[in-house]
Amino acid sequence: xxxxxxxxxxxxxxxxxxxxxxxxxxxxxxxxxxxxxxxxxxxxxxxxxxxxxxxxxxxxxxxxxxxxxxxxxxxxxxxxxxxxxxxxxxxxxxxxxxxxxxxxxxxxxxxxxxxxxxxxxxxxxxxxxxxxxxxxxxxxxxxxxxxxxxxxxxxxxxxxxxxxxxxxxxxxxxxxxxxxxxxxxxxxxxxxxxxxxxxxxxxxxxxxxxxxxxxxxxxxxxxxxxxxxxxxxxxxxxxxxxxxxxxxxxxxxxxxxxxxxxxxxxxxxxxxxxxxxxxxxxxxxxxxxxxxxxxxxxxxxxxxxxxxxxxxxxxxxxxxxxxxxxxxxxxxxxxxxxxxxxxxxxxxxxxxxxxxxxxxxxxxxxxxxxxxxxxxxxxxxxx
Length: 383
Fold this sequence. Notes:
By secondary structure, this protein is α+β, with helices and mostly antiparallel strands. It is built from twelve helices and 22 strands.
């Protein structure tokens, strides 16, 4: 069992206080957006024996187990994070596995450098995600019905938005959503900036359901993503609730602290709320224009006390243990690799005491017993 030393990424949208409060340390005054736990080459966790990716590369079967290596190859197939949004993240979607493989192959064949600003597919993997709230957590996820979006946009009273309102009343719904998103992302930038500025003033005046979009416009003035965000469901998670984000589902995180787990990929197709490249044709190919309620999950308890967030993919499995005073030890020994993350109390994994924000990597097959009080998240794979 290896205690992990993890990197905190200082992205501009990060909260300046949430991760320091979890870790019980003083804020630096700089944004602290994500703490990464895993073997991602961009910021692998470190152990006393070296970085986690070096340990896995040296002996993948020992660290990951035969089942995981056979199913996912000689790499840890997930990345676990603590995510602290102090400002909105970009509006984005992710490809499915076939789209990722085809897109990556095409860009490789075209000779586009992997670090080029206009590169879309950094790797050949898909990127399903799950975010579990540690505090009240605001986000956007999936399309509302076009009629709901039309009402929200129409209430702004902005003349230049009326054509989009009319389009949203067209049928079928999927075609209406596709046409409106396409029109927003391909509009004249100067005209769209003026429209967004008018919409922001109106949203600020109206408040209520419109308040989040006034805030978006404050962070991203003139960005068409402000209007595109009004096509999506607003989601407010309470602590312990989670949101699953499958392929093609547009989403954005607005504010809050959560535990996030994802397949190990960097493939992101941005829709707006960003100064970065937006690949409109590829985005329109990947996004699923299907109005649907967000996939909000509540954990399902098992007799062992493990509360599982059930998702339809195998690259990761997230669960938690909320251990009261006097709880019996829990055996977590598994044939698959695990990362255990404490978020409250003073639990103990094997002989390792964990404070909030601390984590350990448990190699496949290694004896692992959880004791003490507090809340611990368990990340592993289905293999």
